[in-house]
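We now fix the convention by which a protein and its fold are recorded. The integers have meaning only within a learned vocabulary of local backbone shapes. A record is reproduced here so that you can trace the correspondence yourselves:
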Amino acid sequence: MKLERARCLLLALLAAPLAALAGPGFWTGSGPDGGPVFDVQVHPTTPAIVYASTRGGLFRSVDSAASWQRIENGLGGGSSFAKFAIDRETPSTLWVVLFSSRVFRSIDGGDNWAATGYSAPPDAFITDLADAAGGSGSLLLGLSDGTVLRSIDNGGSFAATSLSLAPDVQSIRLFSSASRPNEVIAGVAYQSPSVPAPGTGRALYRSPDNGSSWTPLFDLAPNTSFDDVDYAAGPGGRLYAAINGLLYRSTDDGGSWLSTGLRANKVAAHPSVADTLLIGLSDRQGSGNLRRSTDGGISAVDLASGLSPNPGYGSTVSVAQIVLHPNYPAVPRIYIAGTSSGLYASDNDGVSFTTAQSGLSAVNVRALAVLPNPANSGPTNRRIFAGHGDAFDVAVPLFNSTNSGAGWGSASSGLRAHQIRGLAIDLTTVGSSGVNLASTVIYASGRSSFDPALRNAGLYKSSNGGSSWSVIDAGLPTSGSPPSAFLGTVRQIALDPRSCSSPPASGPCISGPLQTVFATSNGFQQSVIGGDGVRRPTFSHRIIKSTNAGGVWAAADAGLPAAQLGPVQGTSPNEFQPLRAQAVPVPLVLNPQNPQIAYVGTFLGTSEDLTLTPPSIASGVFKTVDGGVSWAQVSSGLPRYPGSADTAFDVLALAIHPTLPDTLWATAVNIRDFNNPRQGFIYKTTDGGASWSNSSTGISTDVDLRVLIVDAGNPNVLYAAGAGSQANPGSVFRSENGGANWRSISIGLPADSALALHIDPFNPTVIYAGTNAAVWQLEQVPDADGDGAPDQLESNAPNNGDGNGDNTADALQGQVGSAISLLNNREGGPAILVAGSFTASVVSGVGAGCQRLNDVQGVIAARNGRDFLPGGEGFGRFYAYPQDLVRFELRECSEATVELRFHAPGVNFAAPGYSLRFYGPSTPGVDNSIGWHDASSLATRVDARTWRLQLRANQFGSYRPADNAILFVGGPAFFNTALFANGFEPSN
């Protein structure tokens, strides 16, 4: 049959949720929904179509935000997107700016995206974009260097407009609307200048001609710094501006302005009723954040119904954006985007709101726990808890799923937190014949509000399986009014498994509850004036301990190094010493046989340029042998920051062997030396920390390792996770020999990778990952050679599973991987073969890891968007990929020769029009260079079915910027003017 038929089916299915492409051996995303929303746009003529950019990806709804699906084909596989715009003249055309400050365009309503060719200069980034009138394809950009650019060719090229701003510009917001089609407003945020430059203080500029000319619209004092600017125009010459948290109003179309006295960060004016507007606050305290004024901003009333993501703790969402329906007020629909808490909608003009985020999976999950269920251990009956990390304003801090991720809800009743970074379940309270939620004890740690009235230490406990929570911070020092404990972020909480009232002779307690709890944090910070009159910061309680199940806490950080301070600044009587460096504890593990012994890992907290001032503070791993009474550094053998004798790389994760407790593993990552490439390693000790040795074989050195766990049922099996970016994707790694060797298990994982991992308590082949795009899970399938291609799949290769014809089954050779591109049928039927099968085999290589392929898989080419030929985007002017793409990775391999052999019937790469193409960065590790590239310099056609690649680490053809890793994505492309002028593939 023609592959075009399969391709048409593919295009129909590509709109399905990403999870629809998943299955055993492939990471699957499941939720929870919500999280940071950066931008919301409503289709101007078909308002049921809504677009949202989030920390977890780019989404589209076709049912007025009732449900959402990802639309990321061609965007490079990242999960975070910034601003975007709709072309009002041609609404099927969209533009989006990635955080890499690269502009992409879609001409089919978001189904497919392609880079326009423009990216911001190296010393600037794109802060906003807006549609401009004057015909389809007109677009404006605001840059951080103070310039506004305009394009009239769909974003392919930009020219500077006449607006020239002061050098202290921080960002530019752009505002345009259909009601004023030729007018553009630029809102300017400034940094705090040491010497104000001329023009600093002009918050708004207006262009009446789509950016050709500009005049100042609103000035404030020349030495004013603005960190936030929003703008709206109403009828009758009413203009509103929210600047630095205050609302200003003009009643004469900008001729004069007055402060209304109201606080405001966001503003939306009623399109037909003068003096009526909505006012939003991006308030971390979350109190009264959405209001309506009917007197031009002089007074306002709260609109709070339904806008409390965590009822009882704070009031309403922190408002990132207010969006009115295109036919408002005839259609009284309002969207509110939360800075941390998702998307909300009202159909009654703000009287009440409901969440509008089903499928909008953008929660940044930093903590995971799975509640065992001995009485019902089926694969769909896990209770999963997911902690929302890095939220600094009102949000749902904790989610749970009672059906293994098929559905999610809030588990935050009484949880007075903004974010959760640590979870620990007291297994002695679960019960032996089934989960007794009425008595199951769960501890959580994180961060509370900055509001003194809501602030607490970030320590929480539930005695009923997460149904309700209470704050547990008794015994900790307090400050503020009213006085409260505050430890910054409490990153981990750990239970002593032998601290029940009657512990057994050995091993963990069977009955409980457990009594001893440890936690790590930034610590209690105070500003103390010494006898010399100098004010200095101090930190205490960075490690704390409770011996009565969280009832009372005490400091347990003696022996950790004191914070280092910089030179005295200021003049008497206002002299002070700023913080220079500190060792901040993160992971803490206890010896399961003798919990008086424990280990803690630290990271270097500093803002200094390490190339100018090498750090000297002791850091790395610390050990206690007396239950936390004192700690001593045990970092011998861990790598150091350049020029330092004592400052080890940051230890962000620790794991301890459950039966050989002198054996531990630690991550060691250079994340503070911004002038050198990032380095990440795993180290191992077998003598309780007296010495450490590198245990990173199979992990490239450019990985930002954040997670490390051990399978308690099989301690030789470990998992690690490294964060990443679009051009240098993160990975989850697995070791089956105690860390001696690692391999990637990352097929389908988001590029940002995992920030938390958890092994299923009843099926250790299933692991869960917390990511920037919510929770994902992987059911591992048999893969004897560890190349990522499952045994069953490799056995389907030609010649009875010998795809490369070397008389050995591919499933038994790590350097040979056979796979096919499959699209799971979302209707429940069998998987659909989209392209032919292939075999990738390493012919030769330089490096110990060249004989182990990783993550061999077929990739749907359409996921990367169309590959347009240079010179045009007309019908048929793009490459086709009848065999789709091949993806594989080689770790600890500096160069390799790899053959790709395709097995589909009728394959003939010798036919005119075929070439090999690479999808990825032209410069390894650089997001701005991702795209389709000619790979003829890397590829030689061996025969009608086979291509041979010559690949080098940190060279074109690989994603990886490391010198010991190669990640390739590419495949055979077809274009022939005579045979393919209509854009259809030939028959096979």
